[in-house]
Specification:
Protein name: Alpha/beta hydrolase
Shape: globular
Number of helices: 10
Helix content: 25-40%
CATH topology: Rossmann fold
Number of domains: 1
CATH architecture: 3-Layer(aba) Sandwich
InterPro entries: AB_hydrolase_fold (IPR029058)
Structural class: alpha/beta
Distance between the termini: 79 Å
Strand content: 15-25%
Radius of gyration: 21 Å
CATH superfamily: Alpha/Beta hydrolase fold, catalytic domain
CATH class: Alpha Beta
Length: 266
């Protein structure tokens, strides 16, 4: 039996299509809210994500939020319902700190939550800036779900959650990642990291080296210096440093190697 199964027993807080909200008790006064991503099976609930890392062996309370419609929080009334359920849990269990975490769509939803209620941390891996066709016309993924979104209360992430909440954001640098992270605004409370050569699914690669656990733990505990060192060792750069790296890389790739002279002459 895995640690997750031994330590986490989930209770349904809400189960009405398209939203499922489940909770697992912890020992501390900290709550981690984990949003699921799109997943791989269209007609099945996406699996829970980050719950083992979020729980920290039962220390933290965990709420897992799953949207089978994959609406990027645009379903009517969804955001307000989520805020109500979390607020009820906070009051019932004496929670003093709430952190949101997610990847891809789940990361976008975590950012939306930060605009709707006070949070102590937001940890978001590969969030989209938008999936609206007018905002990011070059985005061609997840079309089946996106075409079913009929209203857009959260059309794009032009405004990030305000300070003082720390936001830790992570992207790759492939074209499908750049189209989103380059559109995100900068902010004093945002620490944005770009991983060289990484695509949208690079979070899976971080698990193998135990890097993901270290990043999440450092972010939950708000240790930015520790997080920065882990990210740097894993091939990530601060967004402001990545711009210089990309310019240097383009320069050296574009250079023509000088030909070796056949003769040095007299």
């Amino acid at each position: 039996m895995s640690d997750q199964k031994k330590l986490l027993e989930f209770t349904l807080l809400h189960d009405e299509h398209p939203l499922r909200i489940e909770s697992a008790l912890g020992e501390s006064s900290r709550l981690i809210v984990s949003f699921t991503s799109v997943g791989t099976e269209r007609d099945q609930w996406p699996p829970k994500e980050f719950v083992g890392l979020a729980s920290q062996r039962g220390r933290n309370h965990v709420i897992c939020i799953t949207d089978i419609s994959r609406s990027w929080m645009n379903s009517k009334g969804m955001a307000n319902l989520i805020v109500t359920k979390i607020s009820d849990y906070v009051l019932e269990h004496g929670i003093t700190k709430v952190t949101a975490i997610g990847t891809s769509m789940g990361a976008y939803n975590a950012l939306i939550l930060g605009r709707k209620m006070p949070l102590s941390r937001i940890i978001c891996f590969t969030p989209q800036y938008s999936v609206h066709p007018d905002v990011v016309p070059e985005e061609t993924r997840w079309l089946w779900f996106r075409r079913r979104i009929t209203s857009w209360p959260f059309k794009q992430m032009s405004k990030l959650p305000k300070p003082p909440v720390p936001i830790y954001m992570f992207h790759g640098d492939t074209p499908d990642e750049q189209m989103h992270w380059q559109r995100f605004p900068t902010a004093p409370n945002l620490k944005h990291y770009i991983f060289k050569g990484a695509d949208h699914n690079f979070v899976g690669n971080l698990k193998g080296a135990n890097t993901l656990r270290k990043i999440v733990a450092a972010a939950i505990n708000n240790r930015p210096d520790r997080l920065g060192k882990v990210v740097l060792r894993a091939g990530g750069l601060r967004r402001e440093d990545y711009a210089d790296y990309a310019l240097a890389e383009a320069h050296f790739k574009g250079r023509t190697k000088p030909k070796r002279p056949t003769s040095l002459g007299d």
